[in-house]
């Protein structure tokens, strides 16, 4: 893909061209909700006391170039990944084996596991689970590592609160709009075309997943109207991303949803004796709703649990008859440790979960080398690699956390480990850095235009609805589809890529 044709991409714009492109981009973004609430560092809360302001989401001016084969492979294997992770979430015994290595050294994982055990003790009353997943990848170009062939490599697999499905649909539409109004210079005409620009239908497709769970829910026949409940963080800067899903759910499937800040769970919901979850909106003409599906956009980070009461709230929701997206077990299936175990060379695990060998080998080809830091032989080798500054420079160290900002990169690994008691090392996994091709783009963030080298991360969404097993029965997948994509682009000087965390921009793929 690094052909001569693409080395000047994106082209320099004259001042006039840039003005035309930017003014159209800014208006389109706000008019179409490609927006975020402003960061406190950008607009001080005292300047917006009633919280009415929004600003354009960080976006790239141009769609980024992405190799077609990699793009198509990422989309094509998503249903296999959905199947894999739903099978893991259904296999409590297998997950237990993994989680038990973590619970004594990772309080957060320990608390989640306790929550599961507490519900198990009373008996789960909901047999269905929903996953709105996102598998993240980068294109690996450097073949100097014998373990890692060039191609699409998975960064991680998200099983909870996979974000940007709403904004992703909008940014791909923005880039198509800019093409339509001739905002891109004619020198890009052979590259940016209607059939190379990929539209992401993630907002609508993820909302259809929520609707599928809602419709599969067997009502308690309480006579109450039914709803989907979004359990959210408060405040939430990325609220419009979530709103796009809510609006699609209402407009395309006629399903009502409500937003409930996680901390208000216990004051606004109640469990009936048959564990029907009832939600009472603060000012509704209807008294209360029966919740069919709980969609967690909070609860993935220890920061969301301020005290024991928040853990009680999570337990309470998990106990309910509502379908969870995700259940605690599904959330745990997303641990980086699970990814590491699956990626272990010659391990039987992938084959155990994916019966089709060809499918399993396609999934296997997307794994980058990942090592444990435990007492095993591989763990011992990895510990030595991680301690040595020269070899550590090729790795990233990851704890069992979500939401960005938790990893330790390259030369920072040895001093970090030095301070950490060795008994806690197995709470982390060591992953080879994926090395994407050098690309350039222009990012608009907080009104600033930033140019330079960038790195792209492709996320592929997946919807999976399944029935959990009971006793000897291992359950079954009821719905499984690929649900659009996300491209996040960050400056190549930044190790992290979180858009919400302030390091990246939403983008769309121009396949080449
Ligand atoms: P989180 O669950 O917090 O998002 P990730 O595993 O996605 O954790 O890591 C955060 C970011 O770090 C990624 O978006 C990516 O930019 C970078 N990153 C993680 N793993 C790798 C890797 N193996 N190679 C290159 N960059 C990586
Ligand atoms: Mg993650
Ligand atoms: Mg990530």
From TrEMBL:
Pfam families for the chain: GSH_synth_ATP, GSH_synthase
Domain of life: Eukaryota
Domain Glutathione synthase substrate-binding: 227-333
Binding-site positions, substrate: 134, 160-163, 236-238, 242, 297-300, 488, 499-500
GO cellular component terms attached to this protein's record: cytosol
Enzyme Commission number(s) of this protein: 6.3.2.3
Catalytic activity: gamma-L-glutamyl-L-cysteine + glycine + ATP = glutathione + ADP + phosphate + H(+)
Record-linked InterPro entries: Glutathione_synthase (IPR005615), Glutathione_synthase_a-hlx (IPR014042), Glutathione_synthase_C_euk (IPR014709), Glutathione_synthase_N_euk (IPR014049), GSH-S_sub-bd_sf (IPR037013), GSH_synth_subst-bd (IPR004887), PreATP-grasp_dom_sf (IPR016185)
Keywords from the UniProt entry: ATP-binding, Glutathione biosynthesis, Ligase, Magnesium, Metal-binding, Nucleotide-binding
Entry keyword annotation includes Nucleotide-binding: yes
Binding site for Mg(2+): 156, 158, 402
Cofactor(s) the record lists: Mg(2+)
Residues given in the record as ATP binding sites: 156, 336, 398-407, 409, 431-434, 457, 490, 496
Record's signal peptide: none
Cofactor binding remark: Binds 1 Mg(2+) ion per subunit.
Pathway: Sulfur metabolism; glutathione biosynthesis; glutathione from L-cysteine and L-glutamate: step 2/2
Molecular function GO terms recorded: ATP binding; glutathione binding; glutathione synthase activity; magnesium ion binding
Subunit structure: Homodimer.
Family: Belongs to the eukaryotic GSH synthase family.
Name used for this protein in its record: Glutathione synthetase
Organism expressing this protein natively: Trematosphaeria pertusa
């Amino acid at each position: 893909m690094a052909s001569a044709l693409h080395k000047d991409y994106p082209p320099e714009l004259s001042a006039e061209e840039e003005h035309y492109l930017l003014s159209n981009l800014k208006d389109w973004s706000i008019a179409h909700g490609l927006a975020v609430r402003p960061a406190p560092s950008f607009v001080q809360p005292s300047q917006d006391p009633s919280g009415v302001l929004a600003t354009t989401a960080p976006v790239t001016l141009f769609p980024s170039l992405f190799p077609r084969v990699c793009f198509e492979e990422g989309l094509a294997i998503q249903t296999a990944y959905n199947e894999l992770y739903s099978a893991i979430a259904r296999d409590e015994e297998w997950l237990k084996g993994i989680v038990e290595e973590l619970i004594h050294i990772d309080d957060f994982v320990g608390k989640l596991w306790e929550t599961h055990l507490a519900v198990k003790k009373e008996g789960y009353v909901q047999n269905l689970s929903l996953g709105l997943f996102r598998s993240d990848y980068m294109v690996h170009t450097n073949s100097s590592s014998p373990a890692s062939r060039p191609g699409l490599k998975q960064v991680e697999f998200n099983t909870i609160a996979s974000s940007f499905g709403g904004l992703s649909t909008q940014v791909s539409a923005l880039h198509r709009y800019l093409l339509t109004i001739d905002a891109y210079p004619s020198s890009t005409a052979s590259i940016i075309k209607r059939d190379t620009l990929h539209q992401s239908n993630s907002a609508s497709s993820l909302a259809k997943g929520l609707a599928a769970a809602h419709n599969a829910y067997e009502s308690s026949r309480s006579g109450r109207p039914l709803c989907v409940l979004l359990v959210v963080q408060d405040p939430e800067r990325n609220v419009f991303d979530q709103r796009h899903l809510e609006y699609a759910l209402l407009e395309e499937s006629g399903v009502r949803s409500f937003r409930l800040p996680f901390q208000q769970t216990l004051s606004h919901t109640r469990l009936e004796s048959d564990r029907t979850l009832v939600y009472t909106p603060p000012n509704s003409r209807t008294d209360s709703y029966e919740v069919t599906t709980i969609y967690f956009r909070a609860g993935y980070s220890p920061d969301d649990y301020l005290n024991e009461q928040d853990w009680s709230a999570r337990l309470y929701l998990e106990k309910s008859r509502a379908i969870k997206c995700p259940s605690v077990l599904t959330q745990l299936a997303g641990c980086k440790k699970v990814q590491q175990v699956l990626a272990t060379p010659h391990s039987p695990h992938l084959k155990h979960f994916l019966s089709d060998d060809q499918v399993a080998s396609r999934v296997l080809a997307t794994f980058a080398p990942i090592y444990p830091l435990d007492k095993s032989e591989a763990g011992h080798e990895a510990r030595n690699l991680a301690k040595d500054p020269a070899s550590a420079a090729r790795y990233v160290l990851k704890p069992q956390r979500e939401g960005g900002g938790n990893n330790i990169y390259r030369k920072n690994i040895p001093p970090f480990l030095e301070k950490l008691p060795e008994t806690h090392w197995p709470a982390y996994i060591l992953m080879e850095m994926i090395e994407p091709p050098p690309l350039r783009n222009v990012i608009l963030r907080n009104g600033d235009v930033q140019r330079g080298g960038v790195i792209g991360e492709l996320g592929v969404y997946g919807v999976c609805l399944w029935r959990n097993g009971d006793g000897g029965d291992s359950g079954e997948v009821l719905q499984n589809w690929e649900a659009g994509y996300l491209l996040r682009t960050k400056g190549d000087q930044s190790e992290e890529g979180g858009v919400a965390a302030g390091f990246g921009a939403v983008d769309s793929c121009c396949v080449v």
